[in-house]
């Protein structure tokens, strides 16, 4: 820390200039997190930057708006009684996942104690392609993770062989609406059907938490025919990221339970506001209230039709890009961006021994594009893919420019008469 003060203009310029060294957020095709909002949202953000979400006595109307957002999401996800559904905003969907996992663990513990059974060794079942926040949950809250490995035959958790993993200590199964690696939806209905069979045969009644970090704000608008939410009785809770396809700046997430029975009462703290009672369940205390107001602004501004139009536009751009990349001789598509506007591709077998997708990622970075390359998990760890995330604000025009640069860089790499030298192993992209 400097010994003396400096003029605010000087301090601003120092910070501003260093921040320019970061990449251009709009060209970051690695992140799911929103990088653009309209001018009215930006103005509202500045006006509400001082609001503390945890201080519900001081900011009761912000707390009321949070409740309205929860009710809207519960209705969007077909909760049995949206007006009575319980939920909360969070810093992001990682915190929401922690809360969902805690509720599953506590429900299991309560049922086991009531039956006079041991509460040791709880386990949680999930795909090996799960986002790292679930690994953190299991580590921090002492739950055994049971990973169902993805393979070329079963690229998602689809209920296959689930009976090998479920036992009396299983607190729940995580189903992903939009796998981070590829963007594909896991078939929640198939997973629930497999758990129904296990319940009938063995008596293990296992709930589902749907990690809809991305897809829970895409599927309701663009795949209304898909059954994945509280319409499936076995789904106990759903989380999403308001700052992903909820279209808000980072960071805000949401979690909703299907009813009050799905969230154990002893996990809920109660505070008084507006002369009434306000239940709260969170890991964080002080946190920004501005993003909650931004989420409400977008719910009002866009409505159902507006969200459908925005998400469909992103899906159309993803389809345009995936079609263009799929037509290139060098690549095979791994997914096509039809679920969420995210897709991945691999280098076609036998195309070249002179370069890899890591080299292509480096070449694209020289032109400002951040397009990650990384290996798939576990049984597919020998498969390297590249992935593109299309977000609101990434236009068809930008997509065309990306395709032009991609073709140019592939042509350059294909023109090499020998392999690119490497000093060491490739550093994988971390989700």
From TrEMBL:
An MF annotation (GO) of this entry: glutamate decarboxylase activity
Cofactor requirements of the protein: pyridoxal 5'-phosphate
One GO term describing the cellular component: cytosol
Enzymatic reactions: L-glutamate + H(+) = 4-aminobutanoate + CO2
Top enzyme category: lyase
Domain of life: Bacteria
Residue positions where N6-(pyridoxal phosphate)lysine is found in the record: 244
InterPro entries the UniProt entry points to: Glutamate_decarboxylase, PyrdxlP-dep_de-COase, PyrdxlP-dep_Trfase, PyrdxlP-dep_Trfase_major
GO biological process, one term: L-glutamate catabolic process
Keywords, sorted A to Z: Decarboxylase, Lyase, Pyridoxal phosphate
Transmembrane segments annotated in the record for this chain: none
Enzyme Commission code(s) on record: 4.1.1.15
Family: Belongs to the group II decarboxylase family.
Protein name: Glutamate decarboxylase
């Amino acid at each position: 820390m400097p010994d003396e003060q400096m003029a605010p203009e000087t301090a601003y310029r120092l910070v501003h200039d260093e921040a320019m060294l970061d990449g251009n957020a709009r060209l970051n095709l690695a992140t799911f997190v929103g990088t653009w909002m309209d001018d009215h949202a930006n103005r509202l953000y500045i006006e509400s930057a001082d609001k503390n979400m945890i201080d519900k006595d001081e900011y009761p109307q912000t707390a009321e708006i949070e409740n309205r957002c929860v009710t809207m999401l519960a209705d969007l996800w077909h909760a049995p009684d949206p007006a009575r559904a319980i939920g909360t905003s969070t810093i992001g969907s990682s915190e929401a996942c922690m809360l969902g996992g805690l509720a599953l663990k506590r429900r299991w513990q309560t049922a086991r104690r009531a039956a006079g059974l041991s509460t040791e060794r709880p386990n949680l079942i999930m795909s090996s392609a799960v986002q790292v926040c679930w690994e953190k949950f299991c580590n921090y809250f002492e739950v055994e993770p049971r990973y169902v490995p993805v393979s070329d035959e079963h690229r998602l958790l689809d209920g296959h062989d689930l009976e090998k993993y479920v036992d009396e200590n299983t607190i729940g199964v995580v189903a992903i609406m939009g796998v981070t690696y590829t963007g594909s939806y896991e078939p929640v209905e198939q997973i629930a059907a497999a758990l129904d069979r296990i319940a009938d045969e063995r008596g293990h009644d296992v709930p589902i938490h749907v990690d809809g970090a991305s897809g829970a704000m895409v599927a309701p608008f663009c795949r209304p025919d898909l059954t994945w939410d509280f319409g499936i009785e076995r789904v106990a809770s759903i989380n999403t990221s308001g700052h992903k396809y909820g279209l808000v700046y980072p960071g805000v997430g949401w979690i909703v339970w299907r009813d009050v029975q799905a969230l154990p009462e002893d996990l809920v703290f109660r505070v008084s506001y507006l002369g009434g009672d306000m239940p709260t369940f969170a890991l964080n205390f002080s946190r920004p209230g501005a993003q909650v107001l931004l989420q409400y602004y977008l719910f009002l501004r866009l409505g159902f039709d507006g969200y459908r139009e925005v998400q469909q536009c992103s899906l159309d751009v993803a389809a345009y890009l995936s079609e263009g990349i799929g037509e290139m001789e060098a690549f095979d598509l791994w997914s096509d961006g039809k679920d969420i506007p995210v897709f991945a591709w691999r280098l076609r077998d036998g195309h070249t021994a002179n370069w890899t997708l890591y080299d292509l990622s480096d070449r694209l970075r020289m032109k400002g594009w951040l397009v990650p390359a990384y290996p798939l998990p576990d049984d597919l760890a020998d498969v390297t893919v590249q992935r593109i995330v299309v977000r609101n604000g990434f236009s068809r025009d930008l997509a065309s420019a990306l395709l032009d640069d991609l073709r140019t860089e592939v042509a350059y790499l294909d023109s090499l008469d020998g392999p690119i030298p490497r000093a060491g192993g490739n550093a994988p992209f971390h989700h």
